[in-house]
Amino acid sequence: MRFEPARGLSGELQAPPDKSVSHRAALLGAMASEPVRIDRYLRAADTHSTLDAVRALGALVEDHGDEVVLRGCGLREANEPEGPIDVGNAGTLMRLLPGWLAAQDGRAFMLDGDDSIRRRPVDRIAEPLRQMGAELEATDRRYPPLRVRGAHLRAISWELAVASAQVKSCILLAALAADGATTVGEPARSRDHTERMLLRAGVSIHRHGRHVTVVNADELLLDGVRVPGDASSAAFLITAGVLVPGSRLLIGDVGVNWTRVGFLRILRRMQGIVLGDLEEETGELTAEEPVSDLDVAHGALEGTVVEAEEVPLAIDELPLVALLGCFAEGETVVRGAQELRVKESDRIAGVVEGLRGLGAEIEATDDGFSVRGTGGLKGGTIDARGDHRLAMMGAVAGLASREGVEVVGIETAAVSYPGFTDDLARLC
Ligand code: S3P
């Protein structure tokens, strides 16, 4: 698709429902004992894969349009499906679901997905689940397809080598059915939707700094979940609003959980104009997922440095930090982001080669990139490498460029934000 330079984006719209919260709501709904109503479940390829997966495991999914009702199987009663579970392109499903499956004593499950999924490491979840007593097999002990054989689990203490909400969540889900109290430590804070939802479901869960402890439970009781707007999806609209002269946007109902708005803190540091009530870090674990309307306007930007500590809190938005850096005064540097190399694509290579092809002065490092702002981008063609977030970055780059951008190398970018191009067209 081709994206021509825009003359300014204006108007109001709602951010699409949050992908991370939708995945978790469906999984916890399937693990719950009483029906769970999910309001504003995300209708996208990744989250459809999750509904299909929980159906295959025995949960009943009632689809009422705006609301999905899940009648779950309970913590330890998932059925053994006949064939493999297809996670499609959904890394979150591939990493979280085995936590529940590991606790299905004596039953075996096979998980597989598309070509991109088969390149994404699962050893980081297989190792702790093995320690808890489950059996896991993967290609070269590292890549899907992943076979999980459930067991009676024991509690563990586990320190993550890399901050990852997916890995942390997988262990926390397994811990619900393990004997005793499990503690997970992470080198830097990552998104905490799982912890918040478990707290709401009546689980005994506590955070102390970078450690979370969960005590095993008999059942989950979660009556309803309202999915907030997705801050990561909104980030693409926000970037367009900040970069295209004359823009003024109001984006409603955006989830502003502290662990999800690292990108907005970075953007504000770059002098980007984004008004709204972001959640402050309090040190307390809360059950709520706060939302806010965000008011965005075009303005001049300054370069910034993003260090490792901030990376997990803005992980999916780092391609946009690179794009913003092209337009900012001075240099923008991202360090400690080697995780970008194992996302839906190698996002360091994709961002650096992609933006350079549009005229950017950008260099890759092992764990990030540095961009020298040149006041804008010429435009050209960008290869999305089959990665939805690179495709959306290319679209925004096109609107803000001098000559337009053609996005190639992707069949569908609708894995997290199906209405994205329609929303852009409405705002332009
Ligand atoms: C996610 C966590 C992040 C993020 C992904 C969604 C989640 O992955 O990149 O898009 O919902 O837990 P990691 O936990 O691997 O960093």
Q: How far apart, in Å, are the first and last alpha carbons?
A: 16 Å
Q: What are the distinct ligands in this entry?
A: shikimate-3-phosphate
The percent range for helix content is 25-40%
Radius of gyration: 21 Å
Protein structure class: alpha/beta
Shape by Cα distribution: globular
Could you give the count of β-strands? 23
Poorly predicted regions are none
Tell me the strand percentage band: 15-25%
Give the mean pLDDT.
97
Biggest pleated sheet: 4 strands, mixed
Number of helical elements: 12
How do the strands line up in the largest sheet? 2-15-17-16
3D structure, described in words:
- The protein has 428 residues and is of the alpha/beta class.
- Helix content is 30%, strand content 24%.
- It is built from twelve helices and 23 strands.
- The protein has helices at 19-31, 45-56, 91-101, 123-132, 165-175, 193-200, 231-243, 262-269, 318-327, 347-357, 388-400, 420-427, and strands at residues 2-3, 10-14, 36-39, 60-64, 67-71, 85-86, 108-112, 135-139, 143-149, 157-159, 181-185, 205-208, 211-215, 224-226, 248-255, 273-275, 291-297, 305-306, 331-334, 361-365, 368-372, 380-383, 405-408.
- A four-stranded mixed beta sheet has the order 2-15-17-16, with helices on one face.
- The two termini are 16 Å apart.
- Residues 20, 92, 164-166, 169, 190-191, 312, 315-316, 339 line the site of shikimate-3-phosphate.
- The site of shikimate-3-phosphate has 12 residues, from helix 5.
